[in-house]
Amino acid sequence: MFSQAGREILIKAVVQAIPSYAMSCFRLPKKLIKNLHSLAANFWWGDTKDNKKLHWCTWDKLCKPKEEGGLEFWSLNEFNQALLAKQGWRLIYNPQSLLARVLKNSYYPNVSFMEAGCPPGASCVWKGICWGRKILQEGARWRIGNGREARVWEDKWIPRPSGTILLKKPEIEPQTKLHYFINTDGQWQIDKVKKHFHEEDIPWVQGIPIDLYVEDTLTWPYTPNGQYMVKSGYRIGREINLHPTRSSNMEDIHKWWKMLWSMSLPPRMKLFGWRVCHNWLPAKTNLAHRGMDVNLSCDLCGHQAETLTHALWGCAKVKTIWKLVPWYNKCAHFKNGSMFDIMVTLKEHLDKSEFEEAIKIMWAIWENRNRYWNKLPVMNGIQLLDWIFTAYPNSRKRKEQPTTLDMKHQQPKKWIRPPTGHISINCDAAMNTGTAGVGTGFIWRD
Predict the structure, then answer these.
(1) Widest CA span of the chain, in angstroms?
(2) Where is the Reverse transcriptase zinc-binding domain (predicted)?
(3) Nearest alpha-carbon partner for 239 in 318, 381, 352, 134
(4) What would the pLDDT profile of 35-72 be if each residue is shown by its tens digit?
(5) Which residues, listed in sequence order, are joined to residue 430 by a DSSP beta bridge?
(6) How far is it, in rounded angstroms, from Cα 418 to Cα 421?
(7) Which of 61, 163, 282, 435 is most buried (most C-beta within 10 Å)?
(8) How far apart (Å, rounded) are the C-alpha atoms in residues 401 and 405?
(9) Cβ-based neighbours of 316, under 8 Å, separated by 6 or more
(10) DSSP readout, 138-198?
(11) Among 41-55, 78-92, 123-137, which is the least confidently predicted range?
């Protein structure tokens, strides 16, 4: 039985890699992609043939980058488009390949690949490449040489961080190339530039050097060498197809999630912290909100409804566990809010190792709660803390411990015979946590 962390690795390394070859050649049908997403989501949430689990969010949310609160699963639709965009990039930079020559002769004999059309009766291969070309049209930038390839209005060629197209459409014929504004000496025709371009665009245009002996080249600005990569193309595809909303505090959001995923914790605890922040754990109020008929009272205290905040922080029985932690006095005054608010406040008041310990304790409290839910033996506060800090010691303390032993200075221990008329007794005892009984043993020797 895989943990969620193990299922995450399997989905990324195996499930989503299987259709990669087909997706690099053809556009997969939407229904097929939907079915593949459904299978991956069922596996991720733990569905089996006889037991269907609750899906706490949509697949699109899981496909968000980790710094935005997702898990960076591939959305196969955009992944398919990014792979096909790679084929289009190869047509541009390898025009002498057999595929490029066949497609050019069939679909764009007199124009460039970026200007080519897609007739209704085109092959599935060409339709897929044209679909992938949308990513290139959105993300690629022209590096101007002699101005004979880049189009004035239709292409992105202004080297401006805030926008690479002109602010005002010039009153010229469509598909006009930039060399229309360049004279025979390799200089911009200032009169034409001032006549047709917006005043804010003019300094940017004048700052572009012209070289009549160099062709315009299409570059990919998201890589150091200017060559297209599927990973960055996938991000552009997500922007095109989903138009994700951007809040004003995106920098703080990115900082929070990067901190969470960089903690020195086992993967299962990082995933637990991620689910706590999203309130995607089966506390009773969450189950009732999703239509399940459950008794909302907390099983431990029996006085209040079991929200996630109550189960992990506010319950009187849980408070007895937190009070055993040395640094609890720093956060004893916290008021109950959402678990995300409590997590943020904990991060503000605790150092890194203490905050990691807080995540461990929450995970242990939740595991203990699930044992009670399933009518299994549970641990008291001291037992729980002893278990979690023994099974998952602080990573900093582990590093401080010596990793190698100097065997040269260790002398082997030998049994020494007692004096005549005396008896030597060697004894020992052992016990297993959670198991009734104890084992003892002794040896009498003279």
Answers:
(1) 119
(2) 249-322
(3) 134
(4) 999 999 999 998 888 888 899 999 999 999 999 999 99
(5) 439
(6) 8
(7) 282
(8) 11
(9) 301, 303
(10) HH-EEE-SSSSSSBTTTS-----TT-SS-SS--SS-TT-BGGGGB-TTS-B-HHHHHHHS-
(11) 41-55
